[in-house]
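Field: sequence (string)
Field: structure_tokens (string)

Example rows 1 and 2, in order.
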Amino acid sequence: MESYNYIESGLVLACKSTEQLNKLFALGREFSVHKIVVNFLIEYFDEYKNFPSQEQLLEKYESLDKEAKTLAFDYCLDEFKKQVVFRKIKGAIEQNKPVIQTNPQLAVGKLITDLSNIADFTDEDTQIYDSGDDSRLEIYQRRKKLRFTGLKLIGIPTPFKTINRLGIGWDRGELITFVAKTSVGKSWICLKCAAVAREHGFKTLILSAEMPKLQLYQRLDVIVGNMHGYSFSHKALRSGGEIDEQEYKKFLIETKDKKMIVCDQTDGSIFNLTNVISLVRKHKPDFLIIDAAEIVAIGMSEDAVWAKATALFQGLKVLCKTNNMACFVSIQANLGGGEDDLYRMPYLKDIAFGQAAIRSSDILFAMCKVMENEKRRYIQVQKFREGESIFGKIIMEWDVDTGLIREIKDEQVATDSF
């Protein structure tokens, strides 16, 4: 068995994704040599939404084994778990030595119990609730720290100040569904959510079953540009109209955080849940956005529509939990009675794949146009699993040609935006 220092050094030096960091956080108390380095990684990521380089870690913590720099994270994790089990077995035997000497029969029962608890530690699918483990306190303390420092949000920032004020944002493991009729602006909301997450350092994966990448990029350019004080016209970018080309070039060169990945197809095939899972495994996002989820479901099987919908939304919910990410999906409300219907808020019965979306979603939004004011949208929260039913209508200022999409108070244009 390799040394504890070598394997624990390999783990912290190879940690470069939030998925890996969350595994270290869950196992942090089991570290025998480098728990302080794990705590530093967590605090560093919470502050900067990034990871320190291996050189930074080796300089800051001289006890780290430099020879572990090339080790793979998954290999180190497997070896680390073996070491933890070894230590626990050894500890159980040492703890029961006095009983073994005085009452061997009693010792057998105690050892069986202790070793069974160690077996439970290795079972990742099930856990004992009332095991005396206080690790949930550490989780609470970390969430409390996030709640009152930096962004003052536990999760991923949203474009909605009403939601952000609750202190959570888009929480990891949550499935958020957004519903509107055709041409109301579902895709624009998806991209605004992506831009806000990216702005604050969260790796975001956008999957669009409707638009090619160039159209997505042009919309993102005006949204992200607006957030950074640029004034581009989406209409001009699309049609080749007049823009300040030097400003546009400056913006494109400055936009190099590499926190947003866009996919508009999967090798020419129709999107389905299997494609989505593969892309999540490949890119390991903090935030997954799927525009037009109903099209993803169509590509899934020959089953009835309701069965496809159930499989899609249940699959997405499981994907959120197992990958510790948030997922935002847009779906189309059923078409109703013509143009006037775009000004009516969709009801739950209007939602394509309605029952499947309602059951699986943690938060469900609907949006409609505002009569006689194309520069406004109304949004309503129709389901909020972990909170009170909120808010009435959220009013959005809506000028997609310049990329201005933000919540406002009443009918006044707000001077601040998240």
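Row 2 begins here:
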Amino acid sequence: MLHESTRTASLLLLLGLVTGCGESATPKVSAGSRTPTSLHAPAAPALNATHRDLLDLAFDAVSAMPTNPHAKNRARGQSEVVDTCFEIGQLELALHYAERIDNWRKPLAEATYAAALLDQGRTEGVESILERALASAEQAEGWRKDRIRSQVAAGLTKMGDDSRASSVADGLSGSELGPYQRAMASHVPAEDMDTLLAGIDRQIATGDFELHRHALQSLIVWIGRFPDDAESRREMEDRIVDSWSRLPAQMRIEFALELADLALVRSDESRARYWVEQADGLLHGPSWVPEHRIPLVCSVAAVRARYGDAGRAEADLKLMERLYHEQRENIANIYRADALVPLAVAWHRLGDGDRAQQVLWFAVEESQENPNSRPRVDDLILVCCAMVESDLAPNAQLLNRMREIAASMGAPW
């Protein structure tokens, strides 16, 4: 018999077994009655000066973009820097940057900040932050409003307030359920696994692409929570593989690499190799354009190196370098950094710092072919954030060149 509780009812709503009816009134945030069950993430170490310089460089460059007519692009670029701060655990710095965002992405960042505080076991002030973000969501429209509410619902779930969380999430579009669904998967107790699986099966059966994607993400979250439960892990892995043929190849590759990463975390090299081979098999087709194939091969190579197959990983990266140069003229200049930056990061992860610096220099110079500043700012943000997230520091020559480029931004945008 399924475990019946407020938490289970929230799970049923989340998984689409209960559907919301239109817009609901904005509920007031309040503390719940359940103690969070997930482990707290440790606070991040202090950010080194070079990485702070890179984040400032990227944020200041995009903030120089005029709001008219570039308000959306400006805020999107600013939020990418904010997201990098969240990725590396620099929560206060993320909030510092977010204060300068002028649109709906500011309350989204505030809600993300609140949820991240809870991940670190910090509860002071969280309720008021979530209240403010939820109130701001009412000024947004459509999917933007839903995205904020989903992040608020995730925070409420981490607080233990399932009832309020499900109320906030009521009526969300399937495309924006992700943060809330992942939070629920992180907190549903083990005895509710059957409910989780039944709901996920029905969610996948809808045929809705977004619901399918969120369902598989929930399974991966669960696998990560219970690394020693081999039986349920294999059951969930089977569900992922049995249904993922309906998803794009790139998404399947990304899921396979997440599963490989989880296998390595639990020191299961054999299973990591299995998932890497699953990902690699999807890359051997004629339909990949270079700017899509190169980053994925680099991600596969980085995982190979982690379980000791550095020789194959290095060979793959060299192959991708040749592919880039052979196909360079077929890659639009706005996409060249998208191919080169993951290549540089992969070289860094393989321990070849000099080669990583060379590829980054090339990526920075390639971006200068575009006469407009907006795509050049996008590439600068990509380079800066990738270096910070991968703990890669630029040499003095590269950093000076990036500063020169940032200073040169201006009309035409």
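free_text_note (row 2): Residues 160 and 362 are 48 Å apart (CA to CA).
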